[in-house]
Amino acid sequence: MMEQKSLSGRAWAELLLLAAVWGGSFAAIRIALDEIGPLTVVAHRVGWAMLALWAVIWWRRLPLPRDPRVWVGFLVMGLLNNAIPFGLMAWGQLHIPSGLTAILNASTAIFGVLMAALFFADERLTTRKLVGVTLGFAGVATAIGLENLRNFDLRALAQLAVIGGTVSYALASVWARKRLGGQPPQLAAAGMLTGGTLILVPMAWLFEGPLSLDLAPRTWGAIVYVGLISTAFAYLLYYRVLGMAGSGNLMLVTLLIPPFAIMLGAWLLDEDLSAAAYAGFALLVVGMIVLDGRVWRLMRRRVR
């Protein structure tokens, strides 16, 4: 069950900061893609973030796990929560706007509910959750535009790739609950990023060539942002907000990321989204409000 707490002013401020930081990652990735390939972008992202988080762990003198199964768990987590979704979404951004990528990324919460119901007995699909999931899928279908899938061009494939990334995020949450419980958050994040780096650096080298450090300042600025700010710093901020706001309130981040991504995409990249994308996001918002449950419970109390 999702934990829900009342939000203090400080919790709201840090929740908004986290949403802004993650929202900015979509524009930064698109800027980096002007010079380097998607696998190279995400290899830089996880590699620099990994180094930053291991520095935090060294500074805090956190003990390292000795059980090899924990390190295997980190490797799988790096695959599911970094390599697959980061790679698919970065490739998708070559063909669709960053704002639309952020909107489709918001469906992570919808797939998370489905995967939890599939793998955990205490997370069954109630009527409320089923309504929320249905509205969420309607939002995704509206944002994509099912008529576009009939053409099955690169744009349609890119949108499906982003959806594939959200499914991978949902599977990662299942894996973390089953195999990585009890690990300090900073260590779990660093271990996961290490696993992602071990996978992504060889893949980027194989498909896009050796990782180059001879990049334009604009590209380096984007890499520093996605690696150190929207990944390393964001993970630390995420666990801080989790402690203050609870897991239930963190769903609000999913709703707040797309507006930041859309604004930055319009400002920095001159992107313009279709009316269908906004309508789809509106349906996703309604679906996630239903999944959150507070409005649902208020309505039931009033009916009684």
How would you describe this structure to a colleague?
The protein has 304 residues and is mainly alpha-helical. The protein has one domain. It is 79% helix and 0% strand. The chain contains 13 helices and no strands. The protein has helices spanning 9-32, 38-60, 68-92, 98-105, 108-119, 127-144, 146-149, 154-179, 185-208, 217-245, 251-269, 275-292, 294-303. The longest helix has 29 residues, at 217-245. The relative contact order is 0.23. The mean pLDDT is 89.
List the helices and strands and how they pair.
Elements: H1 9-32, H2 38-60, H3 68-92, H4 98-105, H5 108-119, H6 127-144, H7 146-149, H8 154-179, H9 185-208, H10 217-245, H11 251-269, H12 275-292, H13 294-303
Helix pairs in contact: 1-4, 1-10, 1-11, 2-3, 2-9, 2-10, 3-8, 3-9, 4-11, 5-6, 5-8, 6-12
Number of helices: 13
Number of extended strands: 0
Average pLDDT:
89
**Helix content percent band:** over 70%
What pattern of helices and strands is seen along the backbone?
Answer: HHHHHHHHHHHHH
The biggest beta sheet is recorded as: none
Radius of gyration: 19 Å
Quaternary arrangement of the chains shown?
single chain
Instruction: List the uncertain runs.
Output: none
Number of domains: 1
Q: How far apart are the first and last residues' alpha carbons, in Å?
A: 24 Å
Shape: globular
What structural class should be given to the helix and strand makeup?
mainly alpha
State which percent range the strand residues make up.
Answer: under 5%
